[in-house]
Amino acid sequence: MIEAEQRTFRPVPDEVEWQKVCHMDDIPPLEGRRYMIQGMPVAIFKNRKDEVFAIHDECPHRGGPLSDGIMHGSQVSCPLHDWTIDLSTGSPLAPDKGTVGCYQTRTIKNEIWLQFPKH
Ligand code: FES
Fold this sequence. Notes:
Elements (H helix, E strand, L loop, with lengths): L15 E8 L8 E6 L2 E7 L5 E5 L13 E3 L2 E3 L6 E3 L15 E2 L1 E4 L2 E7 L2
Antiparallel strand pairs: 1-10, 2-3, 3-4, 4-8, 5-6, 6-7, 9-10
The structure holds FE2/S2 (inorganic) cluster (FES).
The site of FE2/S2 (inorganic) cluster has 9 residues, from loops.
């Protein structure tokens, strides 16, 4: 049973799979945590409303670790040069440019699941 919201960030491929990544308690509110999933660094964030965001953990500027950034609202500030990245889209605020991938998330019984293309 799905307990929390489900969010779609980008077109969903035809063939997808869900992978359990961590527990809600593993992510402190407004902080990020890095997980290596299918060989890719993924930053997971949780806001004070227990909304979960998952994004590729490399800043679109110069690859800084977004999981070490400060979350505010649905955005994160990169710890290296302070670009602000929208966690819902993976894009920085203008005038900065670029994008990183976001992942669809689900919370089931306080476990965080992410959607990936099926291999
Ligand atoms: S690497 Fe993130 S702002 Fe420069």
